[in-house]
Design brief:
By secondary structure, the chain is mainly alpha-helical. A hairpin with a 5-residue loop joins β3 and β4. It contains 14 helices and 4 strands. It is globular and about 65 Å long.
Length: about 425
């Protein structure tokens, strides 16, 4: 029986590592080790691609700040969107790998209280009972005096963002670094609610000579520092997955049992508690356009899709790199097929069904309406499409549970979500 703890905490519940009982007549000696190697090789390749994408984003940002115009702002936005594609396929490595989970909040934390960073619309409000830094506006204020704490923000540096501002006050919504801080800077707030349109920050917000929004040089400094920090953070994770890297070494040190458990924990927790729950069902329950992962850029349809693709990559032991080359090898699918071919077929079909369900959301986003519109109150067709994808992800999780059993594993802790397990708690 797989225990699924509920709760809105985004961090993985304490992992219960597993006990594997090998079946030598079904699985060749050393097959599990080869599967683990494939998993680590895919992680390395995907993080390398994410780092390369961040570097291309930095180049586009340099062009924008050198010549701030609408064309260069659009190019920087496109570079951000492209950089997300490989990164999102790495999210499956977060759950079950403490080294990744502890690091992930620096690069992909959400949702964020954007008033910490820059100017916001009056509708945002000027204060929050839960967050003293809710509207601190670092870009406009070189000196910050909030809640008895003083911060010198006269120079906006990577150190200021990462060491002084990120999650200041112990509040997860105080996101000062990572993809979503950069996204907010490039797009600005999406003030359209469940109507059409994403954020629409003007390029002149980055032009000190023709400044809109005020403090344009500081905004440039923030954007460049956040982008540089993203690159260094991704470089750190690339190093963790090299042959002598900490994440890869930990898999070997913990043994094949724990490594296989980490793989299935990743698939189960991302599928159920995180994607189906926190990123999809919660927003659908609340009909809240703010409850979408890439909310400033209206890129959430792609965010969900590539997260699912990452789960499929791990199960099949195959990842298509940004340059088109394939990283592949022995897989979980191979292990399951050796024990129960029908179950392997079921798992493959469930993964593919989720890919297809999320692709239908992507197609609607390309042709009809954005994801934040799909989850709006009264949107019968959009709501149904999102719910169908949630149902597919839940079914995928059930198959993942059966895979754990087929491989004769013990118990695996899969992250839950109140939105799925206790919906009434969402409104408390």
């Amino acid at each position: 029986m797989i225990e699924i703890p509920s709760g809105r905490k985004r961090r993985l519940a304490a992992a219960l590592w597993l006990t594997l009982f090998p079946a030598a007549h079904l699985v060749a000696q050393g097959a599990e080790a080869n599967v683990v190697d494939t998993y680590a090789n895919i992680a390395l390749a995907a993080y390398e691609d994410a780092n390369a994408g961040a570097r291309e984003l930095a180049q586009a940002v340099d062009t924008l700040v050198a010549t701030p115009n609408a064309t260069h702002l659009d190019a920087a936005r496109k570079a951000w969107l492209a950089a997300r594609v490989p990164y999102l396929q790495t999210e499956v490595f977060r759950f079950g790998n403490p080294i990744v989970d502890d690091w992930e909040g620096r690069v992909n934390a959400w949702p964020l209280d954007e008033g910490l960073i820059d100017y916001v619309d009056a509708s945002y409000g000027s204060e929050s009972d839960a967050n003293a830094w809710y509207a601190a506006n670092v870009i406009a204020n070189p000196k910050l005096h909030i809640g008895g704490r003083e911060i010198d923000a006269s120079a906006i540096t990577t150190q200021l963002l990462s060491e002084s501002l990120h999650e200041i006050g112990g509040i997860e919504a105080n996101v000062a670094t990572g993809y979503h801080a950069i996204e907010f800077l490039l797009w600005g707030q999406d003030l359209n609610g469940t109507g059409p349109g994403a954020g629409d920050r003007p390029a002149t917000d980055f032009d000190p000579a023709n400044c809109t929004g005020g403090n344009c040089q500081r905004r440039v400094d923030y954007l460049k520092a956040a982008t540089a920090l993203l690159i260094s953070d991704l470089e750190e994770m690339v190093a963790n997955w090299r042959q002598d890297g900490a994440a890869r070494m930990r898999l070997h040190q913990e043994g094949q049992t724990a490594a296989l458990g980490a793989m299935l924990t990743g698939i189960g927790s991302l599928s159920y508690g995180e994607l189906a729950g926190e990123r999809m069902k919660l927003g659908l329950i609340l009909h809240d356009p703010e409850e979408e992962h890439d909310c400033f850029s209206d890129n959430t349809h792609n965010s969900h899709y590539y997260g699912q693709l990452g789960m499929q990559n791990v199960y099949l032991g195959s990842y298509r790199r940004t340059d088109g080359t394939l990283v592949s090898g022995p897989s979980l699918s191979d292990l399951v097929r050796a024990r129960d071919a029908a179950l392997d077929g079921e798992m493959r079909n469930r993964l593919e069904a989720s890919v297809a369900a999320l692709e239908r959301i992507r197609e609607r986003a390309r042709t009809t309406e954005a994801y934040d519109q799909m989850i709006g109150a009264g949107n019968v067709e959009g709501n149904a499409l999102v719910q169908s994808a949630i149902d597919s992800l839940i079914a995928q999780t059930r198959s993942t549970e059966r895979v754990v059993q087929a491989l004769a594993l013990g118990s695996v802790s899969i992250e839950g979500s109140d939105s799925l397990d206790n919906p009434d708690a969402v409104f408390q």
